[in-house]
Amino acid sequence: MNPARLSGRMKTVSMADRTLKKEDLGKLIDSVRAKGGRFVAPALLARQVVFRSVKSAEEVATGYILARNSFKEFLFPQTEVIAEFSMNKDSVGLKGVEVDAPETVVFGARPCEAASLKGLRTLFTWDFVDEFYTKREDKTVVITVGCTSGDEACFCTTVDLSPESTEGADVYLRETEDNGYTVKGLTEKGKKFLDTHDAVFTSGAAKERPLFKPETVPAVDLKRVSERLKDRAHYDDPVWAKLTMKCIGCGACTFVCPTCRCFDITDEGTAFEGERRKNWDSCQYDAFTLHASGHNPREHQPQRWRNRFMCKFNFYPEKFSSKGCVGCGRCIRVCPVRLDITEVMQEFSK
Ligand code: SF4
Ligand code: SF4
User: pTM score, two decimals?
Assistant: First the structure.
C-alpha cells in the first residue's frame, strides 16, 4: 500500500428529488422483481461483500466501502456461450444464441466504478457492436451511492473523480442520518425507473451524511504520466522491473478491475458439436500474447505490467477519450504481493 495516503471529508451537496426510507428498500426490490427484473446489490458471500442478485433487503450489505468484485460481470459475464456449432461429413453448422439480457438494477455501486461504463461501452462498440454487452447495458439501471467511508486504497480524486461523481450512473443516492437515502434521477433511463417504482419513494427533506473524500495521491500528474507513456523510450526503462518484478501474474487485479475487459474466444465440445465461449482473459497471464510459433512479445512479467499500465493511462484516454482507471483501488486491495498502481503513477509523474 502506498504510504502517502490520508483521508478527509467533503462538504455535502444536496440535489435530491425524492427519498428512499431504509425500511422501503425491500419494497423496491419486490417492485423490481415483480416486473421480472433482477436486483443486483452488494451482499455477503463467503465473508466478502460482492455484487450478486438478491431477493430481499436483508441480503443487502451495509457499511461496506466497495464490493470486492466489479458489477461489470452482470454486463460482461466471466464466461458465456455466444454460438453453438455442429459438424458432420456433409456440413458445418454455426448457430448464434440469444443474448441473455434481463432487466437489471445495480444498486449500491460506487461513483468511481460507474465511471468505467463509458470506456466499456466505447470498447464494445468500437469496430464491432458486441450485443452481448450492449443489450445488457441498455437494460441495466445503475444506482450509485455516494461514499460516506473509504480506505487507504481509494484514490478517485487522483483521477479526477469523487464520491459526488455521476458519470455512468442513472440514479444517484446519498445516505441519510436515518439510514435511508436521498434520490436523484440523472438519465432518462434513471428517471423512468424512478417513475415506474414511484410508490416506493417519498418526498421531503432528509439530512445527508457527509461524504468521504480521499486525498489525492501526492506527486501524481496524469498529464505527465500520459506524456511519458507516449514516448516509447520508456519501454526499456529499468524502472518497470524495479517496480513490478514482484508481480506473480495471478491476474486478480484485472478480474476485479471495473475497466478491464479483455476476453478470449474458445471452442469447447467434441469434434462434432460444441459451443463457442467468450471468457475473461488477463494481460497478466504469460499465454495472453503467446504466438503459435512459441514467440512471446511479452515474455517477462514487467512487460505485461507495462502493458496494463499503458492501457489504463495511455491507450484508453488516447483512443477512447475515456478513463482506463477510475481510482477504485480494488487492484491494490486484492494484490497478493501488495503491488500498488499509485506508486507506478508517482514514478511516471517524474
Ligand atoms: S486499475 Fe485498479 S484502481 Fe484503477 S480502476 Fe482498475 S482496479 Fe480500480
Ligand atoms: S494482483 Fe498483483 S500479483 Fe496478481 S497480476 Fe495483479 S499486480 Fe500481479
Answer: 0.93
Is 1 among the domain residues?
Answer: no
Picking from 152, 135, 142, the residue whose alpha carbon sits closest to that of residue 115 is: 142
pLDDT at 174: 96
Neighbours of 41 (CB within 10 A): 24
Q: According to the model, what pLDDT value does residue 15 have?
A: 56
Structural domain boundaries, residue 227: 7-347
284 lies in some domain: yes
* Domain contains 291: yes
**Cα separation of 201 and 190, whole Å?**
14
Crossing angle between the packed helical segments 131-138 and 117-124, to the nearest 10 degrees: 140
Give the torsion through C-alpha atoms of 162, 165, 168, 170, to 10 deg: 140
- The answer to whether the beta carbons of residues 173 and 183 sit under 8 Å apart is yes
Which residues line the pocket of ligand 2, CB cutoff 6 A? 247-253, 284, 334-337, 339
What is the distance in angstroms between the CA of the first residue and the CA of the last residue of the chain?
20
Give the number of domains in the chain: 1
Res 8: pLDDT = 42
In our burial notation (b when 16+ CB lie closer than 10 A, e otherwise), range 255-286 reads bbbbbbbbbeeeeeeeeeebbbbbebbbbbbe
In this prediction, residue 11 carries a pLDDT of: 39
Pocket test for ligand 1, best of 5, 326, 332, 344 (most atoms within 8 A of CB): 326
What is the mean pLDDT of each successive set of 10 residues along the chain, which is 350 residues long? 47 66 97 98 96 98 96 98 94 94 98 97 95 98 97 97 97 95 97 97 92 93 95 94 97 98 96 95 97 96 97 93 95 98 97
Q: Which residues line ligand 1 (CB under 6 A)?
A: 256-259, 312, 325-331, 341
Cβ distance 1 to 340 under 8 Å?
yes
Cell readout for 202 is 417519498
